[in-house]
Protein 1
Amino acid sequence: MLPSSCDTFVALPPSTKGQRIIFGKNSDRPCDEVQEVVYFPATDYSAGEKVECTYIEIEQVLHTYAVVLSKPAWLWGAEMGANEHQVCVGNEAVWGRESADGDEALLGMDLVRLALERANTAERAVDVITELLEKYGQGGSCMEDESGFTYHNSFLISDRTEAWLLETSGKYWAAERVEEGYRNISNQYGITTKIDKEHPGMREYARSKGWWDGETQFNFATVYSFMTTARIEEAGNRYCEGKKLLEKSNGHITAEVMMDILRDKDSGINMEGMFMTTGSMVSVIPKDPDLPGVHYFTATPDPERSVFKPFIFVEHLKPLKETTSPSYGADDPVKKKPRFQSKPDRKHELFVKHELVAAIIDSHKERGKKITESMRQLEKEKMTEMEEHLSVGVEEPDFLVNLFSESVKEEIAVYGKR
């Protein structure tokens, strides 16, 4: 079976309810992969320091921003996340005319984390990713095995005012600014003729390869894809279905609407099978800079039977222990060459508890129904609490330093009651 990719969504006023930006993403990965949710504080570094990414070491910057990430536990980068400036980033696998089989370099997921650590706006995140792409390239296996599963990347990036779609092919790229309405991406190129930033050699490279005649209007998706944009729009694929779901709620898209979209199985957005939705994220970002963003993460597979738990950036945040996987350091099979000779146990505490309750939901219909109802009730209560912060701000930040971890403990308690 050919692996599928994920779905990422963003909605901006006037498509949203209130002056808010809603960001959402499902991370679709191998069904046995553990996804952790982790927090890293802002950090200062000395000149000349390096940072070890998944496969390669690169130059560190003098200051990194605080980030919360949802990431496959075996690698350094992230599928999705946010930073203290309310920048949100998610990436998708894309395949086109250019081969993705290259040397180990930066993974698209490394670029997600690097952008969040180094960019205080969505547009700056585009610049960070493309500068790193030019300097270090993208490449390496994106699965924890020897299959050599490789791809290029597209990114959906948002902040308090706008969103950007960035699509890459090797070191070449195009970016489109989204200032209102909604946008979704799946695993195909979607930028057509509206290009607001681009690699300076992107058009000439396409012309030299015979993909573009240099005269007709340049359409990035048509030129760099295996297929035309007409195929991308075909009814039945996840991109088209996601677009329909956004349109259905156009003008009143909320966090709840986005969660429902991520839970939708009929569309294939909530993926099942060998590749499945292993983690989900929804962020609510008020346009008012005095109000906090609220970032919801599941840290568990299948959003339909998971709880979206809130995270807010405040000072003195504690590590998210219940959703942090074991670390194997230099002994990790990912770090040793040849890589991927074995797979260690990467299950974090919440994953273990959720795995047990998921089995109960599958095998005991009535009991499973009660557990699911209790999980939804907990989620609803948390969202009601967060609405006050989204509307009036954070008056007692110290009360929120353990917000996500306490929500995880309440979720685990729900499992224990049944």
Protein 2
Amino acid sequence: MVGKNGTYTKVNIDMFLKSAIEDRAMHSIFVTFYIYQLKKRCGKPGNSAELFERVSESIKVKRYTEALDDLNAAIEADPNLSEAYLFRASVLRQLCRYEQSERSYKKVLELKPGHSTAEKELSQLLQAKSALETAQSLYDLGNFTKSLEYIDKVVLVFSPACTKAKLLKVSLLIGDKDYEGAIAESGFILKEDENNLDALLLRGRAYYYLADHDVATRHFQKGLRLDPEHGELKKAYFGLKNLLKKSKSAEDNAGKGKLRVAVEEFKTALAVDPDHLAHNVHLHLGLCKVLVRLGRGKDALNSCSDALKIDEELTEALVQRGEAKLLTEDWEGAVEDIKSAAQKSPQDRNIREALMRAEKALKMSKRKDYYKILGISKTASAAEIKRAYKKLALQWHPDKNVGNREEAEAKFREIAAAYEILSDEDKRVRFDQGEDLEDTGGMGSGGGGFNPFGGGGQQYTFTFDGGFPGGGGGGFGGGFPGGYEFHF
């Protein structure tokens, strides 16, 4: 039972279950006994005895309304027929019509005080009623697993024909994300009553959350044909239509290259139902792919991670997250993601090519970035390269950095090496393609790398073609027309 502040007192479910099993085992015996007693009391065949036989048959095929009509007729014919009251009370209990059932049991005890069967079944009725109330309260609190225990182990044991409990069970299964179970349980309800609107709604929702939208739509439409003004069915049906419309628009605009529009539409579609994971995983992936195409690596990384939280085996999301990591210069992370995708789909040529690009980018990231050393872009012209080099060479010339000559020599050497590569068109192309020219001895003559200071204490002469315009200070004189030589 639910108490104050949302807490509940534990009910002994095992005790209920044991009692329920005994009740089921005895039920058929009681039915036979009731009919025997009625035949004895009513005497002639063709009146009450035959009526009660019809009741028994109706219950077997779950025609409870017919059974109750016949029982009511029997009671009307003989208001003191305690067996009829007991039979009616049992049927009403199974249907979880607890108030009416309780009145019938009390009538039996009024006619036959101390009637053991009536006392036992009345106790079971009260347990089932309490368990159903507790299950509903637990459902409202979001404790789906515990609520389901009360429904399965108590309510549906003592009240196996209780539609209210069966519908609550379907809702609990949906809340617990057991959509296949919800489809099966709601199917049982619809088999008995194909026009049950609540069952149609819940079954449609289960299919919806499995992203089986066509089947979900058919359930919602059938319910609305039966009741066009049913609020929950209308909300579910038009909500699904809205989601599919926004999702399609986002995908269409992405396909047309309207990437910024597509980004906003993917976000709008994701906001329609954040709990619809089976559908949203594809929206997150679609958004990630568009953001990668826009070069928005950080945002793309978040979107693909959202997709992988829903489905960690989604290979395409791994690849796209790898592409996003390349944009954010997380070279090792990119290789890790795309390699993981390649292991899942070893025959996919596109993934293998993406992995090769990522591995190449990782290797290139470990090389010296000569563009960065000279402070220029990768599209810099030959004139821009030369200007940047001259500026930095003057700035870091050892003769101008007497106080930190060792650092200046290292920096100047690096600047000179960058210039040698980027000023030579062939070497620059090879560098841009990812070739490691340091490893292949591609800088300077003799394969030993470029060293503007020579070795063994020898003098080194370095000439700038065209001279340095202007200048002064530091022992360089007042300008360098026609070519200037540094002597070390």
Protein 3
Amino acid sequence: MDPCPFVRLSVGNVALKIPVASKPARSVVHPSSSPCFCKIKLKNFPLQTAVVPYIPSESHFSNGQVQTLAASFHLSKLDLEKLAGKPFFSKKLCLKIAIYTGRRGTTCGVNSGRLLGRVSVPLDLTGTELKSTVFYNGWIAVGKEEAGKRSSAQFHLNVKAEPDPRFVFQFEGEPECSPQVFQIQGNIRQPVFTCKFSFRNTGDRNQRSRSLQSEPSSSRGWLSSFGSERERPGKERKGWSITVHDLSGSPVATASMVTPFVASPGSDRVSRSNPGSWLILRPGDGTWKPWGRLEAWRERGSTDGLGYRFELIPDTNGGMGAAAIVLAESTLAASRGGKFMIDLGGGAAVNGRTTPMNAASPVCSPRSSGDFGYGLWPYCMYRGFGFVMSAAVQGEGKCSKPTLEVSVQHVNCTEDAAAFVALAAAVDLSMDACRLFSQKLRKELCQTQDLLG
């Protein structure tokens, strides 16, 4: 089955040149000491903000310089159709960028930055799902002209669109209800996986799924190595597990809660200092092997949401020798949900540091089912960076049927896709695991009465 066409529109290599006046003046901007930033807007998409570095006016911007990402927009086929609009009644599509000097943020409800100028880049996205297109690459004058002279401020940017095909999967129901998972391609829905939710609890072996009853004993060692099954006093949610099976019934991935979600002393919430965690495992060499680890907690303060951190576990002689690599860390709004995303675009900073995709690429799956036909994951280690996956998560109390997108570069076989499906299920279940303990969970998530909150 073919993947769905997607386009990645990226804005990169932004920079600003402003000659420093020889005589101080109140109206002159001194960017060497004043920070700059820009706001990037594409029709119908959320506004994105990025820092704009200043470079001396005598410097040149090398075309061979490493691409630094300022913003990116992920466009599905439906998005492309909407953006195309009706040519007789809609204006030509443009990417709009406003450049500011001063610090980002607001003071007393007023933006603290001062507008320097605006840039508009015309876009024609026709055919971009098939070939790359560069819409602009170079310098452009910004700011107001004075006394008939051209603006001395120069803004550099690179705007391009690239094909970014993805596999799209959707859960038929909520993960705790053991749903089927469909692959979506246009109007075609094809079942590819089934999920089995269960309790992995030392006190109740009978509720474990059939696939986990036959798991190799060595996998228990992995679970104890990465988490804790010890009994803890107080409020906790523990032992959840979801196993992904292919259509033949064979287990191809699992997400297991290895550290209980425990309420902090004197509160009803899981704290960042003591998060719960999941281990995402894949089959290999007659056992389960760790692939990734997801930590989750409930954020405090004005942003009440689900905080999370996902790290990849390199497969080196059993996976214990190399340090895990953090690929995603962010927050999802508890009330309205959001998108869990792994996107290492253009060497963009992840948690304050640049993370190359080749350093994070796992080895090929031990099973070569190759059902998806895009054997690029083990060979893309030096192909650069980009989108990896995203999963839509609903807010608390809402019916959640997660939809996830996975780049074809990272799906070599069924087990690759199943690992991302298990991760999406773990993210969705973490929204429930991190609910305030004063709130009740649905019956499918409760093994004993003390888990009701």
